[in-house]
Structures
1.
Amino acid sequence: MMLGVNIDHVATLRQARRGSMPDPVAAAVICEKAGCDSIVAHLREDRRHINDDDVRRLRKTIKTRLNLEMSTSEDIIKAAIKIRPDQATLVPENRDEVTTEGGLDVLSNMDRISDAIDRLQSKDIKVSLFIDPESDQVEASKKAGAGIIEIHTGKYANAREAEDIEKELSAIAIAADIGLGAGLVVNAGHGLDYKNVKGITSIKGIEELNIGHSIIAYSVFAGIENAVKEMLALAR
Ligand code: PXP
C-alpha cells in the first residue's frame, strides 16, 4: 500500500504561536525523503492550520503528489483550481469539529458534489470522495463521477471491543470490494496509527493510506523521517 502523509498538524503547531515554525512545507520535504508517496493537506475554510501560502509553496516544492483535502464551498473550489493539486479529496467540513467527522453524504448532496467533481476534473485534478464504508455511498460516489474514494476508517480506529473492530473492518472490506468492482480507486484513512493500521493493510485492494496525526505525534519523539519510515514499513 502507498502512504500519503497529512502534514496539517505541523501547521497546527505553528499556529499555536502564529509564527513561522515549524514549517509544514519543510516537513513535507522530509516526508518525501523518507519515501512517502504523496503529501496531504487540508485547506480548511477557517484556515485554522494550513493556509493559502502553504499550499502554494507545497505545489511548487514537493516532488510527489499533492492531495488537497477540501470542502465544496465556492471559495475553496476556486482556490483549488488556482493551486492545481494532483488530487482533491472532498470532505465534509464543520466549523466546530476538531477533525473531519464522518464521511460525505454523497447520496443526499449528489448535485453539489457532482458539480464540484466536474469543475475540478475539467482542470485535470483527480477527485476522491471521503465516505463512510457504506455500499450506497460507494455507489453514489461512482454515480457522481469520482474516480477515487477514500474510506473513512475513524469508526474502526475508535472501536475497542474485538467484536466491534471486526464489524468495522468487515464494513471497510465490503465497501472496498464494491468500490473496486465499480472501477474506483480505493484509499483509506483517518485515525490510523502504528497499531491499528495492520487491520487495514490486511484488506486487499486498498491502494493508499492517508495518515496524519499519529505520524506527526510520533515524530516529536522519533523525528519525522523515522516516523514516516516506520509507518511506510507497516503499509508496505
Ligand atoms: N483522510 C482524510 C480525508 C482526513 O480528513 C484526514 C484528517 O485530516 C485524514 C485522512 C488523516 O487523519 P488522521 O490525522 O487521523 O491520520
2.
Amino acid sequence: MAEKSEFSVSRRGVIMGSAATAMAAHAPAEAQGGRTTMPADPGLMPLTLKVNGQSRALSLDPRTTLLDALREHLHLTGTKKGCDHGQCGACTVIVNDQRINSCLSLALQHDGDAITTIEGLGTPEAMHPMQAAFVRHDGYQCGYCTPGQICSAVAVLDEIKRGIPSHVQADITARPQATNAEMRERMSGNICRCGAYSNIADAMAEVAGVEA
Ligand code: FES
Ligand code: FES
C-alpha cells in the first residue's frame, strides 16, 4: 500500500483552511493581534455582496462557497453546480470584472465584491449580445453548461480587449487578438458534455466581430 505523503492536501482541508483565513480577516481588530482561538462552532458571519447591481446582505456559515451563497441563499439558480471541484466551469461568474469558478471560492472572501451572474447579463426580453448570439448559433443543447459558458465568453472578450495575454500567443508581449484559437484556449476551462463547442466559438466570433 502506498504511504501517505505528509504533504498530501485534501480539498476539504483546503476549504477549511480558506474558511479559517477568511474568518480571521473578518475578526475584530482587537482579536487579531491577541491569542483568540477559533471557536468550535464558528456560527454565522455577516457579509454583503453586490450581486447584479443590488446590495445583498447575508449571514452565512463561513464555509459556504460563493456558488452555494448564490444558489441556495440568494436563489439565483442560473449559475450551475456541475462538478463542485473547479473542473467544469459551469459555476463561472464575473467578480469585479474577472471570471472565477464560484465553487472554489468562499462567499466570505467576496464581502463587498461586485458579482455578475447570468441573471445580471440580460433577460429573455433584453438579452446580452452574447446570449443572443448563443441563441442564433445554437451554442447549447441541454443548456446546463450554458450560463457558465456565456459568463466566461463575455469575460474572455473583455480580457482580450484589455490586452491580457494567454498561452497560445506566439508573442506574449503582443496585443492579443480574438482569433478562433485564442478564444478556444481561453474557453478551455468551460466543459460542455453536449459538445456544442463549435457553435459556441461561432457565437463568440460574431460578438467579437471576427471570422469564425
Ligand atoms: Fe465549479 Fe464545476 S461546478 S468548476
Ligand atoms: Fe449540455 Fe453544454 S449544452 S453540457
3.
Amino acid sequence: MEKEIIALKREKNATVMAHNYQKMEIQSVADVVGDSLELAVRAQETTADLIVLCGVRFMAETAKILNTDRKVVIPVPEAGCPLADQLTPETILEAKRKHPNAAVVVYINSTAECKALADITCTSANAVAVVRSLDEGEIIFGPDANLAAYAQRQVPDKTIIPVPPDGHCYVHTGFTLADVEAARRKGSLIVCHPECPPEVQEQADIIASTGGMVRDAAVGSEAWSVFTEREMASRLRVLYPGRVFYEKPEAVCEDMKKISIEDLRRALEREEYEVVLPEDVMNRARRAIERMIAVGA
Ligand code: 13P
Ligand code: SF4
C-alpha cells in the first residue's frame, strides 16, 4: 500500500498533507504533517498539481481557497468538524449588527462561508497574535468559546465577544480536573490545547496548538500528559522516542478517524473527492486567511 501511494504521488505530482490527529498509517506516508496553521501555510507554498488533504473538511477547504488553480481532494468528504458547524453566517451578521465597531475573527475551524465574513481568521497557534494585531478594541470571535476565553486572558485590554456563547469541541471539553489530578499522580507535566475548558487550562504547564505541542514537548519534562485528541501522543512518541507521553484513550475525534490508508490510495488514484466552492466565497475567505498568515504564529 505504501509503495502504491508513493508511486501515485510521483505519477500525479501530488502532495499528501495530514493533520496531527490523523491515523499514524496516514501520517507515515504524508509529505506534510502539522497543525491547522502549518497545513494552511504549506498549502499556500506547494507546487504540486494535486493536494490530498487528510483531515477534516474545513482544512481541505482552506487548502483549496489558497490554491484555486490546483486540484484539492479530501479522501472522505463526510469528515467534518462538529465545532465548525456551530457557527453560521447568520450568527456573525447578528453579532455585527449588535457590535458595529467590532472586528470579526473567525477560527479556522469554520465553514468557508463564515470565513468569507471575517476580517481575519485565526488558528489555535496564533489566536493571541491575531487579536493583538487588530486596531479594534472589540472583537467578535467564534466558534470556540474556550479559545476565545484563552485569547481574552492573554489580551485583557480588548473585549472578546464569543459567538455562539458556548461553541465547543466535544473532544476537548471531555478533559476535566480529574484528568489533571490523574496526570499529576503519574508525575507528568501537562500540555493542553486551548479548546479545553478554562479551569483545565489554568492547571496546565503549557497551552499550545498541536504544532506547538510538537515544539514544546521537545524541552522540559521527560513525561507529558497530552490534553488533546489521543493521536497526538502517538505522534509525539514517534518524534521523541526517549520520552513518555500519556494520552486520554477516550479523547477521539471521530471525524479525523474516518480516513483510512485505503481511502488515501483511492483518493490519489481517482482524484476524489474534489473540493469545490463558489468563487466569490473563496475570494472573500482568502483575504481573511492571507491576513492571518501575514500575522504568523
Ligand atoms: P490545531 O490547529 O492545534 O491542530 O487544532 C485543530 C483542531 O481541530 C483542534 O481540535
Ligand atoms: Fe473539530 Fe474537535 Fe475534531 Fe478538532 S478535535 S476537528 S475541533 S471535532
